[in-house]
Amino acid sequence: MSSILSTIIIFIFILGFTTAYESPSYTVIHSESDFEIRSYEPSVWMTAPSKKNSFRKATNDGFHRLFQFIEGANLNNSRVSMTVPVLTIPLDSSAYVVYFYLPDKFQASPPLPLPELNLKPESWPAACVAVRQFSGFARDKNTVEEAEKLATSLSRSGYSTAASSNFAYSIAQYNSPLKFFGRLNEVWVYVEGCESTKVAAY
Predict the structure, then answer these.
(1) Residue ranges per domain, the chain?
(2) Considering the entire predicted model, what is its pTM?
(3) By CB count within 10 A, which of 64, 126, 168, 200 is most buried?
(4) How far does CA 189 lie from the centroid of its chain?
(5) What pLDDT, in 10s, does the model give residues 31-72?
(6) Cα atoms in the 13 Å half-sphere on the side-chain side of 158
(7) Which of 103-107, 112-116, 191-195 has the lowest average pLDDT?
(8) Do the beta carbons of residue 61 and residue 50 sit within 8 Å?
């Protein structure tokens, strides 16, 4: 079975019948018609670097290894509950990192992945994030287009890209490939300005 096909089957199995999964905690501090600003709390993610040459291929490659990890391919033999979203961050045209948010149970002490999976945990500090939602399937072309739309919106707002960010944007996916309608994706960009009054916690 090809890695792409097996990854699709994994996504269908895990996210096909979504009820409620853990996700990183945030507070909405500003909202406009086409984007919102969220203040995220510190969190720990498991990361999967990929040298695939496209967003789609890199996401499939990274999540395939992350799925093995959450199914018990770790030195603790621990099963890890599925969470959302799955993040893919493009570093350049042939380097990506796929992120899996660790459930609360493992935030303080993540299971150690098997070395051959080439995964590692990464701690994120509290972050101010601009978020634009979009529907449909996240692909190489539309993810770039949606990131450009968010950049345009931010240029007209009082929020500027965070100088400390090591990447331009990330793509958050919430659904299985089996879900054809009502899909939810997001573009995330680190920005400055979360000292504003907080209005809604999630």
Answers:
(1) 3-201
(2) 0.87
(3) 64
(4) 11
(5) 999 999 999 999 999 999 999 999 999 999 999 999 999 999
(6) 7
(7) 191-195
(8) yes
